[in-house]
Specification:
This protein has 355 residues and is of the alpha+beta class. It has helices at 2-34, 41-65, 75-101, 108-124, 131-152, 156-161, 164-175, 187-209, 214-217, 258-268, 273-278, 312-336, 346-354; strands at 223-230, 236-241, 285-288, 291-297, 301-307. It has 2 domains: 2-216; 219-354, 2-Layer Sandwich (Beta-Lactamase).
C-alpha cells in the first residue's frame, strides 16, 4: 500500500511539473503578444515566466531522477537552472526600469542587480546557498514593480481597474514560495510548490493583463489640441493647444502644421458637423491625416480632442473634462452665443484634468 501511495504521489508530481511548464510557457507567449514583442514591462514579465518555467523543469527533473542519474544532481547543473531564472529576473528588472526611465537614463537597479547576481553566483561555488541570490533579486523585483505600478496607478483607468491584491499575492506565490524546498526535497513539497506557483502565475497574469500599454503610460505626450464647440453657433468657445500654452507642455515639440490641422478639421467638419453636433450615436472618432480626432458630446457643446494616437486613458480624460466643463460652464454656454471670453478659468480646468 505504501508503495502505491508513493507511486501515486510521484505521478502527481510529474503531472504537476508538466502542467506548470505548459501554463508558464502559455502565459509567456500571451504576454509577448500583448506587448507586441517590444521591450516593455509586459514583455519583461513574459521573460520572467519563460525562464522560471526552465528553472522549474530543471529543479523538478533533478528531484525526480537524481536516484537514477546522480550526475544531474550536481553543482553545475543546479547552477545552470538557477542562472536561467536569475537571467529572467534581471531582464524583467531591466524591462520595467527601461520603460519607466526611457533610453537616456541609466538603469541603476538593473546594474546593481547584475553585480549582486555575479557576486552571489561566484560565492555559490564556495558553498554559499544560491537562495541568497534569489532573495536579493526578489527585493529588486519588488522595488521596480512597485515603482512601475505606482506610476501606472496615476492613470485613472488603471486606478479603477488594477487588482493590487491579486498582483501582490501572485508575486508572493511565484517568488517566495520557491523557498519552501529548503524544508525538504520531497515529492510532496515540490508538488505543493507547483500548485502554488500555478495559482501565483494566474494571479499575476490576471492583474497584469488589463494594465495600460506603454502608449497609455505616455498619453500626455500625444495630446495636441482641445477645442470646445458651441452647438448653437458651431463656434469654438475654448481652444487649448497642449504643445504651446502651459509650461508643463513646453518640452513637447510643436509641429508647424498644428494650425493647418485645426483649420482643416474645422473645414472638413462642415460636411459632418450636423451629425457630430446633434446625433449622440454618431461619429465619436475620426482619423485626419496623421492625427486622430475624438469627440465627446453634451447637450449644448462638443469637446474635440486632437491627438497623435487614440488610447484608452485619453478617452477617459476627455469624458471627465466634458463632465466637469458642463458642471462649471453649462449654464453659461446656453447664453454665451460662442463668445469665448465668457469662459474664464476653462484653461485651468483643462490643466487639472489633463495635467
Amino acid at each position: 500500500m505504501q508503495t502505491f501511495v508513493n507511486t501515486l504521489v510521484r505521478d502527481l508530481f510529474v503531472g504537476s511539473t508538466f502542467i506548470v511548464a505548459f501554463i508558464l510557457f502559455f502565459i509567456s507567449w500571451g504576454l509577448f503578444r500583448k506587448a507586441d514583442w517590444q521591450i516593455s514591462g509586459t514583455s519583461g514579465l513574459g521573460v520572467y515566466f519563460l525562464t522560471f518555467a526552465g528553472y522549474s523543469i530543471q529543479t523538478n527533473i533533478t528531484v525526480l531522477y537524481e536516484n537514477f542519474f546522480p550526475v544531474i544532481d550536481n553543482l553545475l547543473v543546479n547552477f545552470l537552472g538557477a542562472f536561467c531564472w536569475m537571467l529572467g529576473i534581471i531582464l524583467m528588472i531591466y524591462f520595467l526600469e527601461r520603460e519607466q526611465l526611457g533610453e537616456k537614463e541609466k538603469p541603476i537597479i538593473t546594474i546593481v542587480a547584475n553585480v549582486f547576481a555575479l557576486i552571489s553566483g561566484a560565492f555559490s561555488f564556495l558553498g554559499v546557498p544560491i537562495a541568497f541570490a534569489f532573495i536579493g533579486l526578489s527585493i529588486a523585483v519588488i522595488y521596480v514593480s512597485y515603482e512601475y505600478i505606482r506610476e501606472v496607478i496615476e492613470l485613472e483607468t488603471a486606478r479603477k481597474s488594477f487588482p493590487q491584491y491579486w498582483f501582490a499575492a501572485g508575486i508572493a506565490l511565484t517568488g517566495f514560495i520557491n523557498f519552501i524546498v529548503l524544508f525538504g526535497r520531497t515529492y510532496e513539497i515540490y508538488m505543493i510548490k507547483n500548485i502554488l506557483v500555478i495559482f501565483g502565475a494566474i494571479a499575476i497574469t490576471y492583474a497584469w493583463w488589463d494594465l495600460p500599454s506603454l502608449e497609455d503610460l505616455n498619453w500626455l505626450r500625444i495630446l495636441d489640441r482641445l477645442l470646445v464647440i458651441d452647438i448653437q453657433t458651431t463656434l469654438p468657445i475654448l481652444d487649448f493647444p497642449f504643445r504651446k500654452d502651459s509650461s508643463k507642455f513646453k518640452s513637447i515639440p510643436t509641429e508647424d502644421s498644428d494650425g493647418l490641422v485645426v483649420a482643416g478639421v474645422m473645414t472638413s467638419m462642415e460636411t459632418v458637423m450636423e451629425e457630430i453636433l446633434t446625433d449622440s450615436g454618431g461619429i465619436n472618432e475620426i482619423n485626419f491625416g496623421n492625427k486622430t480626432i475624438i469627440f465627446e458630446r453634451r447637450p449644448d457643446f462638443v469637446c474635440i480632442l486632437i491627438v497623435d494616437k487614440s488610447v484608452r486613458e485619453i478617452h477617459f480624460r476627455l469624458e471627465t473634462f466634458a463632465l466637469y466643463f458642463e458642471n462649471q460652464f453649462g449654464e453659461i454656454v446656453k447664453y454665451a452665443k460662442g463668445q469665448a471670453d465668457q469662459f474664464i478659468g476653462a484653461d485651468n480646468l483643462v490643466r487639472s484634468v489633463f495635467g
